[in-house]
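Quick start: what a row looks like.
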Amino acid sequence: MKKIVLAFLILFTVSSQAQELKWHTNIKDAIAVSNKEKKPMMLFFTGSDWCGWCIRLQKEVLLTPEFKAWAKTNVVLVELDFPQRTPQLPEIKQQNAELQQVFGVQGYPTVFFTNVEKNKDGRLNFIALGKTGYVAGGPKAWLAEANGFLKNKI
C-alpha cells in the first residue's frame, strides 16, 4: 500500500511540474524564444508584492489550468516586475524600467502582446498586437480578450 501511495505522489509531482510555465525575466532571452518558436510575447507588467489587482489577476487567471494550457501553445511569457519588498537584480530593474518607458505603462497590471523585428540598423522594433490588464470573469473572459489580439500575431 505504501508503494502505491508513493508511486501516486511521484506521478502527481511530475505531472504538476510539467504544468508549470516558463516566465522569462530577461527580455533578450524571451525575444530569442519568441523568434525561434514563432510565437508573440506576452509582457506582464506587475507589482508582484504590492499590487492588489496584479495578485488578483495571478490568482483568477494566470495560475489556472486553462491559462497554462493556452499560454503553452500561444505565447512566450515575460514577467516585468516592479516589486517594493522583493530584491531584484540591478540589470533586471533597469531593463524593466526601460520597457515600462517604451510601452508607456502607467498602471498595473498591464499586459502587452507583441512581436519583435530587427530593423536594418539592427535595432529592435516592438510590434504591438494588443494591451489589456485585469478582466473580470476569470480565465474564460480574459482569454477571449487575449485571443482577439492574437488573431494577427505573425
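That is the whole record. The helical segments are 2-18, 27-37, 52-62, 65-74, 90-103, 138-150. The beta strands are 23-24, 41-46, 76-81, 110-118, 124-132.
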